Amino acid sequence: MSQREWDESDVRVRPNKKGSRPRTKDRPKHDDAVRGRVIGVDRGRYTAVVNEAQPDEHTVMAMRARELRRQPIVPGDLVSLVGDTSGGPDALARLVRIEERTTLLRRSADDTDPVERVVVANVDQVVIVVAAADPEPRPGFIDRTMVAAHDAGIEPVLVITKADLREPVDLVSTYRPLGMEVIVSRSSTGGNDAHGSLLVDLEALAELRRVLNGRISTTLGHSGVGKSTLVNALTGSQRATGHVNEVTGRGRHTSSSAIALRMLDSEPGTWIIDTPGVRSFGLAHVDPQAVVDAFEDLVPATAQCSRGCTHAVDAAGCALDAWVADGHAGPHGADRLASMRRLLASRSDAVEDVKELGDGGA
Length: 362
Ligand SMILES: Nc1nc2c(ncn2[C@@H]2O[C@H](COP(=O)(O)OP(=O)(O)OP(=O)(O)O)[C@@H](O)[C@H]2O)c(=O)[nH]1
Ligand SMILES: [Zn+2]
Prior knowledge:
Elements: E1 34-42, E2 45-50, E3 58-64, E4 78-83, E5 93-98, E6 104-108, E7 116-121, E8 125-131, H1 139-152, E9 155-161, H2 169-175, E10 181-184, E11 187-192, E12 198-200, H3 202-212, E13 216-220, H4 227-235, E14 259-262, E15 271-274, H5 288-294, H6 320-325, H7 333-348
Parallel strand pairs: 3-5, 8-9, 8-13, 9-10, 13-15
Antiparallel strand pairs: 1-2, 1-4, 2-3, 4-5, 6-7, 11-12, 14-15
Helix pairs in contact: 1-5, 1-7
The structure holds guanosine-5'-triphosphate and zinc ion (ZN).
């Protein structure tokens, strides 16, 4: 990676099935600690909100305590802070503990890399942002992210941007039947806002607000799909959008560290965590069965697979092809099955021997 897209979240942690939970052995010596929510991570400095939604809410800058070693601390983390938690201009607190996380979104660099990276903590939903065109949408990325979200117990939401360039008919008809929120956004004809950002169609924004209100969400998507444009419209912030690298002349990642932002006119507790452009979302840490489970439209068929079915193209007794051919997975069933098989095949390189899947309907 050419730049620090992931900052602290690239801290290497040992793969751990149960999620990289911090040790929760209480250390009573910090009983004067205050609780905060990490909203920014930048070069070893953490920004946390203390007394959230209270009259005395304020942000605190903190450094990690040595005792935390290299445990990842990511946006969304609830933490304990000691020292100067006044939030004054030069105040620097010490972050001494990471509270247990409700959810933890992880990724590996690629499907065979056993090293997992923590992306965000405690989010309720993942907003997968793809463009209808420019850049071309990649259903593989959507499916991959859905698997990671499903595996982490986080709800996926799909936002398709740039519908003004092309109507995303196939994407909508593929993903809407799966029961997830699918929101189509387009630029409005009104031009740019005061900061030069493209204006987003109000109807799409209102729908997105409804889905995000009261919840903690994180956006994920490739560079250039319009994440910052959306996040700016929703939060009133000014994340850099669409900047062009002066050296190469090519579009580049303009937002380089993850940050949690508040949505305008929203209930307390509404946060949008904007992550930098994702190039890869490896699933090496995800169990093959969890990959299958994320394809909810296909899962029922696997009850009829032969015992230990790998669901590969040539797997004897795999019931998936017949299920799809019979139309049970809808008009895009074949694509869905192909996508699931690609994910299974690519990540199966990560394990020595392909794990057995399915229980033969027993
Ligand atoms: N036509 C059209 N262009 C859009 C739309 N949304 C965003 N764009 C443009 O697409 C380009 C990329 O948008 P950004 O918001 O910077 O994309 P991003 O996903 O944040 O990209 P990174 O910051 O690199 O991660 C900009 O030139 C935007 O003006 C849209 O709905 N329609
Ligand atoms: Zn099968």
